[in-house]
Amino acid sequence: MKKAILSCAVLLILTMVTNAQNTLPVIKSNAKSVSIRDGHILKHNSWGLDPSAKPDTYHVEIPRANNKVTFVTDQDSISFDTQYGKVYNFVILLNGKDSCYTRISANYSGINMPIQLKTSAAADTIPFIMRNSRPYVVGKVNGKDNIYMMLDLGAGITCVNINSVRKTGMQFDGKISVMNTNGTKDEPSSSKTVLQIGNLRWENVNVVQVRNLDDEDDMIIGNSLFRDQILEINYDKKILIVHQKPIDVPAGYTGHLVQYDQHRPKIKIDLHIADKVFSDWFLFDTGRDGTMLIGEDFTGEFDVWPLFNTIFKFGTKKIVVIPKVKIGSLSFANIVTNANDPAHPTGKQSLMGNELLQQFNVILDNKTGMMYLKANSLQGAAYEQWDNMKYKFYGAIAGITIILTAIVWAVFRFIKRLKNNRGSKV
Fold first, then answer.
1. 20 to 30 A from 335, CA-CA: which of 5, 30, 231, 352?
2. % of the chain surpassing 90 pLDDT
3. Residue 217: which of 272, 268, 159, 267 has the closest Cα?
4. Which residues sit opposite 134 in a β-bridge?
């Protein structure tokens, strides 16, 4: 009898300890949107609560960096000091009744790690060419040679030109919704693509078909392929260097914190508008053949819409002149660009294009969430600015005015001649 009682007591204690270990921390919320602070990044009301997800997983921005991640509700908060490879579970109790099981994962999501064909190399050097201020590498796709790939750090996924599907041996097995200059469409996708650049090979890469590329552009590759590497873009030497291990940053580079959006890097830049300085996160878009674009994320955050020096307006956009933009150690004057009306959101994000970005050599350290910039031999290269454009602009307006005047005059003469002819027949 004593042995039975003792066994029951031990079992009860073990059960209590196990339950205590399995008890998840709980925070409360009366709002469906939650803010997240991930290291230096604050995502205001960015996380929607979903009781049906068990769990709903948030992936840490920079998994290899030991950061503090904090979920903040309208009533409560909870923080975890994250370490690479670990997960952290808790519950957000919505309106006192719905349990929203939530997980913080310090792991990468949706990326492919490259296989090094030369395993002894600490880094891989890949030459590139320039087309319209954008870098291109030549590689293999599904064993097919001479595939031209644009390095577009502003792309959230790897893309294939609809005209290059046969050339790349692409075999589609699904569909992905794509939003670009052609609108939003469901496009064919492949989950089994094999891609090789230099001595690096990626397997089972997700690739989606797109319709808005130039004929000579076979594919677009972005930062999702390099998310756990250090990517160096040297425009002076026209080489990419993919580092597998930490490096010492050479002298002359300025450091910038990185924020990621679907693996796409953003850095903070300064815009001088109407004698005021506005700092905000802009996409580092090496695939943009232009200076920049100002989306409603910027115009909505800051009350700048009426402050712009506007050349003209069409629809919900303005063509504006930005007196000064500062990126790293360089300043750019009188940039002509598009700005989107915050009252009519279209989902356009603010970005910097490669007409400006190519003037820097770049080290993107995805392992630590830092970007390093150094002005290169292309600094001072021409870009779309008002001082150079206004003469073309006014010339074009003058030309259009002359043509329209000539047309109106010709129509007037024709009508007058027609009336005279009718009068002569009476």
1. 231
2. 73
3. 159
4. 131
Q: Side-chain half-sphere of 213: how many Cα atoms within 13 Å?
A: 24
Peptide bond into 250 cis (omega under 30): no
Q: How confident is the model at residue 232 (pLDDT cuts 50, 70, 90)?
A: very high
3-state helix, strand, coil in the chain (%, to 5): 20, 45, 35
Confidence of residue 419 (pLDDT cuts 50, 70, 90): low
Alpha helical stretches, state H, 193-322: 296-301
Cα 296–chain centre separation: 15
As a whole number of angstroms, the distance between CA 389 and CA 386 comes to 5
Alpha-carbon torsion (381, 384, 386, 388), positive or negative: positive
The one-letter amino acid code at 310 reads T
**Domains of the chain and CATH, by start:** 23-105 (no CATH), 115-226 (2.40.70.10), 254-386 (2.40.70)
Q: Judge if pTM exceeds 0.70.
A: yes
Q: What is the pLDDT of residue 333?
A: 95
What pLDDT sits at residue 400? Answer: 65
At which residue do the structure tokens 């992936």 appear? Answer: 59
Of 96, 24, 30, which Cα lies nearest the Cα of 55? 24
Q: Are 128 and 135 in contact (CB under 8 A)?
A: yes
